[in-house]
Amino acid sequence: MVDAALDRPGFQAISPDSSLWLDQLDQAWTAQTSGQAGEEAAIPVGQQRIGSQVRYAVSPIVIAAWESAARELGWPDQPVGWEDIQQLATQDPDFKWNHPSTSTAAGLLATLAEFYAGAGLTRNLTEEAATAPETLEYVKNVESTIQFYGEGEEVIVQRLAEEGRDFLDAFVAQERVVIDWNRTQADQQGQERLVAIYPKEGALWTDHPLALLELGSRADELATTNNQHLTFQAFADYLTSADVQQQLLASGYRPADLSIPLDAPGSPFADTGVNAGAVDWRQPQTTLQMPGPAVVDVVKNVWRLTKRPTNVYLVVDASGSMSGPKIIRTRQALTAFVNQIQGDRDRVGMIEFGDGLKAFTPLRVMDEGNRADLLIQIDAMEASGGTALIDAVYAAVADLQAQSDGEAIDAVVVMTDGKENSSAYELRDLQALLRSGAGRPPVIFTIAFGKDADEELLQAIAELGGGQFRRADATDIEELYRIISTYF
Amino acid sequence: MNRTRIIFIGILAVAALIAGASLLVRGRSGGAQAGLTVERPDQVTVRVITALPVEEWVRNAAEEFNAGDYTVDGAPIDVEIVAMDGLAALGRWDRNEFGALDPGVRPEDLTPEEQAALDSFPTAWIPDSRYLVELANASYKERLGRDVFLTDGEYRARPIAISLFTWGLYNSRAEVLEKTYGQINWQTIHDAATAKGGWPELGGDPAWGFFKLVAPNPAKNVGGLAAMIAMAGEYYGRTDISVEDVTNPEFQTWLKELMGAVTDFSSASAYTAEDFALFGYSVGDGGQLLESDLLQNMQGILTRWEDPLKIVYPDYVTWFDFPFTVWVGPETSALEKNAALEFERFLLSPEQQEKALAYGLRPANPEIAVDASEDSLFVKWRDQGVQEVVPRTTAMRSPDRDVLLTLLRWFELNVGE
Questions:
Q1: ipTM here
Q2: Which of residues 386-405 of B touch A (CB under 8 A)?
Q3: Which of A275, A318, B310, B404 supports an S-S bond with A352, CB 3.0-4.6 Å?
């Protein structure tokens, strides 16, 4: 969102989860525009990309845990912190936890907490402390316990509903996720409750700003019009209106309207009801200190070196039905995916399929040369032949299992626009292969591109691989690949 | 018909045609009251860039004003409020983002498109403090060779309300600090901020973590600059701060230690008292903020958190005077300037000055007492330490431009990065 807002965006307002991103946007904008006017400004207050802004709700970022898991950690009798979770995760191989990637506020907070703990600090984290070898070793150990990264809360909640505690014991999320789960899943579906652990070292807040962009100062960029200003104001007024603020409270947010008490009868924060004791409006007591933008950048960059590595196969339909705009958009989407994979230990391979396996590029570390080779190969993809979908997935899984070292996240991202018609293997063969591996089987993401894809088969494959099934069309296939790349 | 008579009749015909066309155009544009030579618009719009601490009061006053029968030369006045932090506005004036004309260029020399662009030019500015006006004037003096906001005469800047910076600390935290240090000032706050053992070392609850200072980001909120000036004032024990003072390495070390106790400078509002209410003691135990801001958010703090704020007046006081400042350049018309003055008179009326009390603002009109209205926040929050008469009178002097710029650059290099 930050990158898109810098360069002639097709939108005029943004609403990220935290104003932390607005700060990063303004810093980047100032860096881009400083000196452009041809003269040094007398007042060193940078040109701002963000105009008006309003906050409509806040929610602290907490460690969300099953109530039984939280009690095992000592909750609610003793304070629980980031360090407790990190210690447990590194000592108990059965303890499963997750945090999203650093592109979300929740993921960034969890990562910062790891760096603070690794540096032996609770505030004033510096670049030197964040990049010290001991810090990096500590963070690497903690990150090796992560199940997977990813988009964030919604996907986790969906899988918790399906798999319960088998999926995760704890995850990093906004407090409102706990409230919403208890309302919809615990109360209505009989699932176990989640509770919010407010980390003793400090939480962080999401503050949901709605911000208008000041457009028009860049060449070929349309200025924000008066009508757009008025529309922004009307929408901001709507979000902060009494009705919407009450709806936000009911959904588990802490509304920005300060006349609304959190503990009133009927509120999810009240001492009665399904959320009683699971969340506490008097918390958090303290907040983890957010370092300056330069240190945050260092943490985000260094995290790529410490995070769990990935082995991922892109399994791509290059059959005849993909000809025309579809293959063009697929090339763009794959390029975006490959460019997003930045970890120096991450390996990417690609399998093109038609009547059979048309091209097999084995896993390779994405250094400059390998990345360039893979991009050339993507650019040369041509559509022809039938659809040997299962054979291609089978080949990817077999190779991952042969190479697996247990340290990396093994994954397959499969995309097709058609129906299986050319494979020698069947679904049950794939299932047997996945079960035959010694370690954790590869996670399989499947994408149905367009309306003619065999969604039933793709859903079945995703289920076998413990991954996700997603739909895409020509307009959002690139964005979907970009999102999936955040899982690695 | 001779040649002279033909020319005479031709001239008369052309004159009649011009007059007719002029009448037709004026009729279409709705200027029914206008004669052939006097243009009077249907409505005069006044755009007022307004500092955030007075925005709500001024916006509500503008709504009342617009609903009234206020006119200038017979044309109704419509006031538009554009909320903007004083420092952000200063940056826009400095970069000439509002589009002031170059010296010697008159609006009538512009193309219709360029004239239309001037429609959104601000008529007046209410910054937080008059020193911002002086900085804007300094910037335009370099560019245009003259002041654009006047300090005397009819269009001079006049304060519409005042407020000052006070300490706001959660009661529970203030009690511990007062017990430990006896007094709240920047030196004791510095000691609390740098206590290695955090609150337990100071005698507070371990769950409170470290002492967390609330200070606005000076690059986003003019209150942050005011806080740094006040810190310097108490560090040196005087009201007049120089560039040498703020570049002193010992002072800078002390200042950096203080700033190291701020939890987050990236907040959307860059720390105002609203943050106290939204995030509570988790983000800040206390800080020096504008009195009106603290008073406006006191109810929200009590609604959301169990711990009310205590207000403590500092030894060295920084005042904001919110001057109503009319742009005197040719970008706005005389009618617009006079309409702006009409709105300024409305804000200074006893009725509106009393209404300012409900926003925690002290009236600029000395005849209005701070307890004059039953809605006055000075009455409502008396128990939290707010005082109708400010107990100390040592006011910090307005810093000069070089001091401000030095502090801003220091922040950018040492904290903002």
A1: 0.77
A2: 405
A3: A318
